[in-house]
Amino acid sequence: MMATHPRQALDLLLRGQRGTSVFSDLRGLQVMLDFERALARAEARVGIIPWATAAAISDCCYAECFDQTALAGGCALSGNLAIPMVQQLTRLVSDISVEAAGYVHWGATSQDVVDTGCVLQLREFLDLLQATIRQAAVEFATLTDRHQDTPMAGRTWLQQAVPITFGLKTAGYVDVLLRHLERLDELRPRLLALQFGGAAGTLASLGDRGPEVAAALGDELQLTVPAISWHGHRDRLAEVATLCGLIVGSAGKIARDLSLMGQTEVAEASEPSAPGRGGSSTMPHKRNPVAAAVILSTAVRVPGLVSAILGAMVQEHERGLGGWHAEWETLPEICTLTLGALERLVELASGLEVDAVAMRNNLGLTRGLLLAEALSMALAKNIGKARAHAVVEKITHRALEERRPLDEVLREEAEVTTHFTGPQLDRLLDPANYTGAAGSTTATVLAGFRSRQAEWNAKGAVDHAGN
Amino acid sequence: MMATHPRQALDLLLRGQRGTSVFSDLRGLQVMLDFERALARAEARVGIIPWATAAAISDCCYAECFDQTALAGGCALSGNLAIPMVQQLTRLVSDISVEAAGYVHWGATSQDVVDTGCVLQLREFLDLLQATIRQAAVEFATLTDRHQDTPMAGRTWLQQAVPITFGLKTAGYVDVLLRHLERLDELRPRLLALQFGGAAGTLASLGDRGPEVAAALGDELQLTVPAISWHGHRDRLAEVATLCGLIVGSAGKIARDLSLMGQTEVAEASEPSAPGRGGSSTMPHKRNPVAAAVILSTAVRVPGLVSAILGAMVQEHERGLGGWHAEWETLPEICTLTLGALERLVELASGLEVDAVAMRNNLGLTRGLLLAEALSMALAKNIGKARAHAVVEKITHRALEERRPLDEVLREEAEVTTHFTGPQLDRLLDPANYTGAAGSTTATVLAGFRSRQAEWNAKGAVDHAGN
Amino acid sequence: MMATHPRQALDLLLRGQRGTSVFSDLRGLQVMLDFERALARAEARVGIIPWATAAAISDCCYAECFDQTALAGGCALSGNLAIPMVQQLTRLVSDISVEAAGYVHWGATSQDVVDTGCVLQLREFLDLLQATIRQAAVEFATLTDRHQDTPMAGRTWLQQAVPITFGLKTAGYVDVLLRHLERLDELRPRLLALQFGGAAGTLASLGDRGPEVAAALGDELQLTVPAISWHGHRDRLAEVATLCGLIVGSAGKIARDLSLMGQTEVAEASEPSAPGRGGSSTMPHKRNPVAAAVILSTAVRVPGLVSAILGAMVQEHERGLGGWHAEWETLPEICTLTLGALERLVELASGLEVDAVAMRNNLGLTRGLLLAEALSMALAKNIGKARAHAVVEKITHRALEERRPLDEVLREEAEVTTHFTGPQLDRLLDPANYTGAAGSTTATVLAGFRSRQAEWNAKGAVDHAGN
Amino acid sequence: MMATHPRQALDLLLRGQRGTSVFSDLRGLQVMLDFERALARAEARVGIIPWATAAAISDCCYAECFDQTALAGGCALSGNLAIPMVQQLTRLVSDISVEAAGYVHWGATSQDVVDTGCVLQLREFLDLLQATIRQAAVEFATLTDRHQDTPMAGRTWLQQAVPITFGLKTAGYVDVLLRHLERLDELRPRLLALQFGGAAGTLASLGDRGPEVAAALGDELQLTVPAISWHGHRDRLAEVATLCGLIVGSAGKIARDLSLMGQTEVAEASEPSAPGRGGSSTMPHKRNPVAAAVILSTAVRVPGLVSAILGAMVQEHERGLGGWHAEWETLPEICTLTLGALERLVELASGLEVDAVAMRNNLGLTRGLLLAEALSMALAKNIGKARAHAVVEKITHRALEERRPLDEVLREEAEVTTHFTGPQLDRLLDPANYTGAAGSTTATVLAGFRSRQAEWNAKGAVDHAGN
User: Fold this and answer.
1) Contact check, Cβ <8 Å, A249/D238
2) What dihedral angle (degrees, nearest 10) is formed by the CA atoms of D311, D315, D320, D325?
3) Which uninterrupted H or E stretch holds D159?
4) Among residues A46, C35, C206, D466, which is most buried (max CB within 10 A)?
5) Considering the entire predicted model, what is its pTM?
């Protein structure tokens, strides 16, 4: 029955392969079995069960051996996936050893398995997330490096404001991605904590051996053993959701920028092209921004999903009713969508086709008005700030009304021509000369990026050497 | 590749079979093909294409003939499912007639197919939704009928307030469900509208025949032809989401009530039991409220999903970027979760085990204080409102402080015993006698329900006769 | 203390005067007092209290007589505004008649007052909302009428697609606004329901007179008397929130469109100008789209607020804990923001400066590629669909690669020039000739609008005559 | 006009004094003026303007001197508060020195002022937030210390599961609060960053002196100078919102727990009482949980507000349209509600009335079934796990069916009495003896708390010494 109702048509578009794999049903089952195996081994290590029992249990902890359809049915009846998983596992183990079967899941509660399994999946996810954010940062750093002297219109409230460089824009992207990596580093140790408390957090069925088993179990799974079980306190998981929310917000901002730059009328940048990509059979001029569509749709969806996770935190007593269940699909949804959006961001950044000529042309659209501030500042040095402001206002109003270039109008203004020669005015009205601190800012961001990148590489080398 | 990453383990628990089927990938593909078939037939009807062409196209419009994996891949590339669907369909048709293949999807745009397909799925969904709400209303009406004289504590701010009847409580459930059915009726005609505008809503590729084709197409699909295409105006779809949000809110309220009544300490009602249902291996006394868990988790999740749909309404120009894409999974998610929750509500209502004795016992927990108001009202008739209030305040404070029954304390109070005999006081302090308008209110609600039910039956009979 | 911490700096910008007035503290207090006055009168009408008592109470029901600071303090202590309001009212009445003071709020519970007061405020709000949506529809209908033949680029995925008319775009706005008015009409009778149930919905303190008092009270306030009180069922109020969510989504869509059209590079429409409006001291060319900013910010905020209202529906038992309290500020927030956004929409629509020349110029940006479909359709009649498609593909690719106008390239193509004369090609490549059903669609929408408008006027005349 | 529409009636209840003050209009204006003063001083320090000019400007930077009504009106026209603020400030300064008036706001853009002002307010807020979380942690640590040996029922899915201690429950509260403090520490340095970029982030109007001015300005305001301005990247602010979301989720969880414990039928804990607090005139036995109501309502509201902030992150280009505006009220709303909820949590924790006897009594409600697991574990040591499980299952089923105490039933069972004496069974069935690792866990949490507390005190002492 399960085989007939998949809902995966959009997975490849919206989530990509990697995130979908981490949070597949099969993987979700395997991490629960990893818990059961580790629990058996931990109990053998502290001497609560024989090693042979642990071995018998371990030998059955392979997701492929399980009947997923039966699991889904058992879950519908019992209310969570761990119960039918434990039942099937017990049956499998009892084929090897009836004795051993009695020790399956010994001392643990369903939520211990489900929550720890979730943490194990999130560990894989965080690695992918980190790698993908880094990739995106690298791509935008490359663009920044390449375009630090490419002038374009700075835009505020969707209106051209004053000139910037494209490198300054992408430096902002690099900067925010580095901040997200920092947050990810901070969150990781909090998240990677074992869940193991038994029915109500006391591990009472293990007598006074609970903490010992917990320590061994944490060691088996390479997870921190927290001071107290967190069945009813969901901040660790919710924090992953909120971090994803922040990351997706930034990805959405970038995708919005780039898709606006890709408008037919702006035409400053476009998504990488490929056969069949974003094409339209009847509209040959169109190149649909598929990556931006994916990222923006994710940016629309994730905030609501985050709010669900936050709302779900209000869980009753030792283990709650409904709130816990609300996390099961929502958290993977957030993670896979976030990763999918970031993969698209990498693709977008790495293949972006930038049209510096169009940027330059667009700088001319206001017929020089974009540089009114520059002119005003220059004039002020000669005739004072107040007077300069008045003169520029007069000129710009005339330019606006007569729809003539500022360049032309100002050369008719004595108070301007007295103080500036023609070539001086040319320089003054070249947008490339009015980008202020764009260059130094960009350099600072790039320097910061490179130092972080060096750390990653050093760390990566160590990690690699350590393998 | 698709087969290895399903995420369906929780479908049966959270969504049930029916909703999952309506929104499966296969069904989603079929409704798009239903559009293509209807379009070909419509164009044949108005004479734009030959009937043989329409027949060739129709013959290929079977979802089972399509390669779903290739669809997913094509979708990832092109940005929506309609493009690879049309490509596959065209290939299939060209095996029959190269000529006909040229007329596949003639005049339509991707969004026409996707949106109309979505409306067709929602039509099926609304039928299921309506039927399930009606079932729930029937079940709660039955409970209301049975328990209109079963006294229990009314509770406000989680504190016992004054007595009510259990029938009054469930009458409230019936009442709100009827209101949701009314909303559903109102929404339906707005929703069931064809989407057909071509690339930008002008149907220009059909010359001046667009409206004619649209009319025929609407007729084929039994959908209204709206005054104007609605590619960029998503209120029709978003309204389904908001209605689901309202319904789920009510379902959550009911599940909250019943799960609170099922607490070990309250024990007034419990979920139906079944072998394996909500059981706990190590805690024999527990019967986990699985249905309530499902409903409450849905009530936590759906509001955020609704907010995503509302946020997605801000779509650009003739067809938007990102907002449209955000709907694709979110709307089915809302619908399937809503239906799943309602199916659980029906199950909960129909199998609810009500313990009227426990209700009665709980009415005694405040040692009579629950009836202070009743006493005050009765006394007021004899000694005036102000004096009555003062006397009752004195008595209740003593009862509270001395932790003695009000019944006992008040019989020591002259101002009370002067006016009431023992048996009169017995009657006064019987919670069953202080339920005010509960009876008439319940009767009114039930009468309203029955009249609605008669309408459904009449309508159903007509529908049936019409088949 | 209260006077020192107002948070109103943004009210005029974001909410406007009218909505802010309806939901001011003073008005919020007055509607509660309206309830108390009506309750006293209702109880006098059915003979439960003397008319003199009702008169004494009525005489004190003026918000201006109350100490708002004390109310806020009392609310902080007791947990809702009705309790300190009743206390102050009782004190005021007791200055007139100690006897009468005993009958203040007789039979009602705090939530009866707060909820009914809320409904009274919402009634005022709905009137304003309806009037403002109608105004917006009128303005967009005027634009539609004026611009039904103004060609512009239709845009999908932020790319130019095929030509439309500006009238077609605004007709879409009219159409959706009419749908919202329909929803509003349907919601109104459900919403305008009295809340009156006493402590737990039984009106027990009124003995068997509850329903009678309720009927008289409903009559006093011109509210429907529902079958059962709805303290724990919040769908009526939540539906207002969801309707606002839908409306704001549409307003956001329109504001997004118009702000995109107002980009420096597009320049097809701009917000009305006024001294000081959206100006920038240093950037004379900028005209900040203030109305769009307000509407879009509201469209970002309201979905989350709606989700809060939906989440708040899960209220416990007869009167809930926390959920009810969550509505108090959230619902007015939604209403005032919605009304503020709509007022801005009216302002935007009525003062919109449309630049038809710019629209025409932008149609030329793709150098004719926008009309590839038109050419293909025309050619197909001569050389068959498949061949036409191939020819046009060849031509458009050349035009794209060589960055030359389609017009120029296609005149070099024998298969084209064989079938079309120069003037024929001129006509074919004029975007104004490829707007398909735009004209008839626009006419249909306008006709629908006018018929609705006639109904409003007729209804308004009747209402007026009735006064 | 402003004075007549305040919406503050609920401030004291929901937000408390402190948060309301930090985010009042007056304070919001003052922080903008703090920016202007600091900017003038910074520019004087680097020699761009004379010190006399800076002094003239500084002398006018007092919020009390401003016309708030005019500000609101100017804001409605110009679209943000900074523009009319700068206009009024310029007028005030020009009364002192026309020359100086020309340098007001020199080089800054509106968003520089608004954003930096917001950061300054958030700095105050974070201090209050930290102090309040610490207070709550202290209170719950005190309860933990006091109740580490107070047995109560552990509850899962709203059903009694196995015994815990009340100290274990509150230890969980302490633990999560410490984690939130950790997050707050991490967030702070990221947040406390200057916003200063001029019109589009280049500071071009300051020529090449921009970075220098920025450095001096950061120094004046004691804010970090970030590598690049963050007008379009809102993660710093959004992170405050998400942290509040996490904190409120935890507060809601605690309030839910305590309010469930306060139900009439459970009666294990109740909110502190005070005259007038949560009272009900007609229901003397009720003590409405006002603090829980406030916290829970906040927990319902904040997730949706957080989603709005996340949704608002998608801001266009250098400074966005609508997204920025959406933050202005939403962020203060989140902060004030969070602080208000936490203040209530402190109040709740510090005044909580705990009824250990009721806890003990409730442990008996299942007639011993709560200890089935304990019995099973004990028996297993004698007769093996499988057999023990079977025996206990038999006994518990009999107890359930016959509604008799487990204690009684099991003494009829030979397999039990063979292995345990009467007193042994007594011990076994005492819930206080089956709390497993509760004691050690509680001790670990308390030790962790004390070490953190020592750090606060040490840090506080240093801070104090430094003053």
Assistant:
1) yes
2) 20
3) strand D159-165
4) C35
5) 0.97
